[in-house]
Structure formats: structure tokens, C-alpha cells
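Subject: for your reference before the review

Hello V.,

The reviewers asked for a structural picture of the protein, and I figured it would be easier to keep everything in one thread rather than splitting it across files. Below is the amino acid sequence we used in the manuscript, unchanged from the supplementary table.
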Amino acid sequence: LLRQRGTVIMSIEKEQVLQALEKHYHKAVALSLDLSDHPELPYEEYESSRKIAEILKEAGFQVTYPYAGYDTAFCGYLDNGQGPSAALLVEYDALPGIGHGCGHNLHGALSVLSGLGLMELKDSFKGKLYVIGTPAEEENGAKIGMAEQGIFDGMSLAAMMHSTAGGLSVPDMDELSLRCYVVDFHGKTAHAVGAPWEGKSALAAGRKFLDLIDARRECFTPDVHVNSVILDGGKAPNIIPDFCQIRMEFRTDSMKKLEVMDEAIRKCANAAAMALDCTVTLTPGLSDFFDMVRTVPLENTVAQLLEKYGEKVGPIEAPSGSSDVGNVSYRCPAIQPLIAVTEETMALHTTEFRNACRTEAAHQAMLSGAAVLTELFLKIYNEPEFCEKVKESWEAALSRKKG
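And here is what came back from the structure prediction:
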């Protein structure tokens, strides 16, 4: 009998899923370690994407590579007859300096393993299966552009898992919407002592802009976050700066509220420029990251499946970050559970977490997570009532988000 984290697997259903995954488990472990050994930065994941595309092609998927206008994206496709369409999302970009400190090597391999398992079980369902490689999650995530292209429109499900620490796996990851601006103030130079009255300080305008935003903070709702850095504030203290550049990000719990904050940000920028006789421009620094449209039936089912495969399940926490999976969730029902790869509590984006994603415990978590996704996809394919319930819940949640 197979064992999952020390528990003997007795259920025939679990046994069937795990046997399908076990055929490819060592291949997935090798892939995860190889990605960890050879980390590639966002948009530069040429070898990582090629290796995964080859694995999918060898397994029988129709593979398009490159895909969707991204050199390092791919799409593995299984046309398994009439039925729902669903997509497994694969991440594989790394962080500068520390490599796979976010665990993309592990949970990217997890999605691949689930896809291979579903290929093994293709006689058990009807429908369309996509395994989509999504580059650059750590920067201007490719899922954003893919969602804009309509790739996920009409799908019954898009899903992936994300690695985490601390011993508790979580049924879904809530997210905040995010918008980024590069804010440029232009003024006029002058000698700071000899003739300062001839100058128009772009730096003073930039500072006043940040002051005005701070003045509004006491009226922010708890979900609103505004963070900024000054990239250029002048070259010498004896010169009135004619240019100041600020990079700003702001987040909210809905795209509707993001537009309200956008108006406030622009008012502060224009007011500061006017007060200091300067001009200002706001240029997008990133594509918008959308908040998460949560689908309760998916979350409840994933919680049950996590427990079924031996995971300790924790509550879904208030959003504290952003992800391009949010953009997907505005196009179709989507979910991004967290799979605990270590009992220790540690921060992501660290060398400690990078190393934790290379352990046997992490590989066992990968197997559990792949089993959860595999069963979730089988429910979407094989249970029309569940599929319809998911769709109705998602449509209602999306309507509430849009107001």
C-alpha cells in the first residue's frame, strides 16, 4: 500500500489517484530539483520552460511552445472529448540572488505532476485539459496578458497551488488588486543659494505629493495600502531639482475600489504639481494585478481534499499581497491553495525557504497537492452539478466585486 506522510492509504479512490501520480512522481521530483539547481529570472526561463514542454509532449499532450506571445510560455493540451475545459497553471521563474525562494520549482512541478496524473486517468473523464506555463509571476506576470487575451474565458476551472511554510495548508489564497505608477515631476533648475527664486523644485512637488497621500491615510479602509520610493530627487544639494521620479504601488480589495484610489492618487499628484508650479505625469509601471474572486464551493472542496490527503488545514487569511492568478479569477472560476512544504515557520523569498523546497518532506507535500488538484479536476469533469454550482458561485462573487 502507498503511504502519504506516514498514513496508510486504504481508499480505492485515493489509491487510483496516487497510483497514477506515482508513475511520474520521481520525474516531478527530478524536475523540481533541476529547476532549483538552474534558476532563471522572469522572462528568461528558456531552459525551464523547454524542459517542462518536453515532459508534456512525451506524455502525449499537444504542446504549443512558445505560447500567447511569450517566448517562455507553453500550453499542453489534451482533447479528451466533450466536456468542461480546465487549466492547470505552471510557474517556474526565480528570484534574483536567491533563486527559487518562492518555491516555484516545487509547485510548478506539482502542477506538471497533476497534469501527468490526469493524462494517466484520461479514461476516467471527458473534457479539455490545458497545462499552461505562465512566466514571470515575480514581475509583470504572464497570466495578466493571457487573461486579457481571453485564454481563460469560458473555462470551468483554472488552478494551481503555491508553496508555503508553517505546517498548515490553506484552501485558497486571497489577493489584493495592485496598480503601479511611475510619477514624474518636472520643474526648473536654479542655483539653490544664488537665485533659488528662479527655480521650481520638482523634488518639493514630489515630497508634497507623498505628504498629501499620507494626509489621507487616516481615511483609508483597512485593505488600502500605498507604498512609494523616490527614484530620482536631484543630483546635487546646491541645485534646485528640475526632475523628481517616484515609483508608487497601491492596493485595494477590489478593482472597483482601485479606481477610486486611482482618482485620489491623481488628485494628490496634480495638487502638488500645481502648488509648486511644476508639471506631473503618471505612467503605468506594471500591468494591473487584480484581486481574487473567491469561489466558495471550490474552497470547501479543496479543504476537504487537503484533509483527505493528510494535510493539516488552516483558515484562509486576509489578503496581504497580490498575484496574477487574481486576473485569471475575473475570467473563470480560479483557485490557488497553499501547500505547506515544511512544519517550520519561515518567510518566503528567503534562502531558508528555497532550501526547504528541496527536501523529502516538500516532495511528499508536492504529491499530496498534486492529488488534491487531480481530484478537483475530476470533480469538475465528472460532476455536472458541482461544475454548475461552481459557475453560479463564481458569477455571483464576480458580480459583487464589480458592484
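For the response letter, the relevant points are probably these. The two ends are 51 Å apart (CA to CA). The chain has eleven helices and 14 strands.

Happy to draft the paragraph if you're swamped.

O.
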